[in-house]
């Protein structure tokens, strides 16, 4: 299973925004973005005008890194979005929100998407009562997502739920408790349901560069 192993704080510095890839560190004073850190590299302090292509590329990279997808996955999601009815950019965001690792995070079972991906890949999550270890699986309305009822599976979910740091969106419903974490998707997510930490993403610019 392919994944990005680059230093995550450098990704945030390159995009000049918090991507929330480091768990609790992102909420602490150690976060480089809070310290007004410059982009990485020897030319990070140089202020040059970004080209039109560069602007669109940065928007695409922000989206990919925020949801933890690689280029090949992004291209597949873009193809699905172009075949769906409605605005392609909004459909792309909806598809990314339906990823199982994202749903696990947004239900409050994991502190961030990387942790959600780890929970799924290690077999701690059940979908409709069946173990699913594919983080990129797209959840459908009515699907029930549950954490396995064993201590090793419940530990991370209980800690995150106890903190209450994750706001559950309207398209998801928490049906269980801290002792038996469970939730379900009630409907297809819309543009308004996108994670509030990336609501300023300009999806139209992403579609423009994806069509090249």
Structure, described:
This protein has 212 residues and is of the alpha+beta class. The chain folds into two domains: 8-94 and 196-210, Ribosomal protein S4/S9, N-terminal domain (Ribosomal Protein S4 Delta 41, Chain A, domain 1), CATH 1.10.1050.10; 99-187, Structural Genomics Hypothetical 15.5 Kd Protein In mrcA-pckA Intergenic Region, Chain A. The chain is built from eight helices and five strands, in the order H-H-H-H-H-H-E-E-E-H-E-E-H. The chain has helices spanning 8-15, 52-67, 71-83, 88-97, 100-106, 113-121, 151-163, 203-210, and strands at 125-127, 130-131, 144-147, 172-174, 182-185. Strands 2-1-3-5-4 form a five-stranded antiparallel sheet. A hairpin with a 2-residue loop joins strand 1 and strand 2 (130-131). Helix 4 (88-97) packs across helix 8 and helix 5 (100-106) packs across helix 6. It starts with 7 loop residues before the first helix and ends with a helix. The model has no long low-confidence stretch (mean pLDDT 83).
CATH class designation of the largest domain: Mainly Alpha
Question: Major beta sheet, specifics?
Answer: 5 strands, antiparallel
Give me the secondary-structure category: alpha+beta
Residue runs with pLDDT of under 50 for 5 or more positions: none
Compute the number of helices: 8
Total count of strands:
5
CATH topology of the largest domain: Ribosomal Protein S4 Delta 41, Chain A, domain 1
Please state how the strands of the largest beta sheet are arranged side by side: 2-1-3-5-4
Q: Radius of gyration over alpha carbons?
A: 18 Å
Strand content bin: 5-15%
Order of helices and strands: HHHHHHEEEHEEH
Termini separation comes to 27 Å
Q: What would the principal axes of the Cα set say about the shape?
A: globular
The total domain count is: 2
């Amino acid at each position: 299973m392919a994944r990005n192993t680059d230093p995550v704080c450098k990704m945030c510095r390159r995009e000049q925004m918090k991507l929330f890839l480091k768990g609790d560190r992102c909420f602490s004073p150690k976060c480089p973005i809070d310290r007004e850190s410059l982009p990485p590299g020897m030319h990070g302090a140089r202020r040059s005008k970004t080209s039109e292509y560069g602007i669109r590329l940065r928007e695409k990279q922000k989206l990919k890194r925020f949801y933890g997808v690689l280029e090949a996955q992004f291209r597949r999601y873009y193809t699905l979005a172009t075949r769906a009815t409605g605005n392609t950019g909004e459909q792309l965001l909806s598809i990314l929100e339906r990823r199982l690792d994202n749903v696990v995070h947004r239900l409050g079972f994991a502190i961030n998407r990387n942790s959600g991906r780890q929970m799924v890949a290690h077999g701690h999550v059940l979908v409709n009562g069946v173990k699913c270890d594919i983080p990129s699986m797209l959840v459908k309305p009515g699907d029930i997502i549950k954490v396995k009822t064993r201590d090793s599976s419940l530990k991370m979910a209980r800690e995150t739920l106890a903190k209450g740091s994750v706001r559950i969106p309207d398209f998801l419903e928490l049906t269980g408790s801290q002792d038996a974490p469970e939730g379900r998707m009630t409907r297809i997510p819309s543009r308004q349901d996108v994670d509030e930490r990336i609501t300023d993403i300009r999806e139209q610019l992403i579609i423009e560069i994806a069509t090249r």
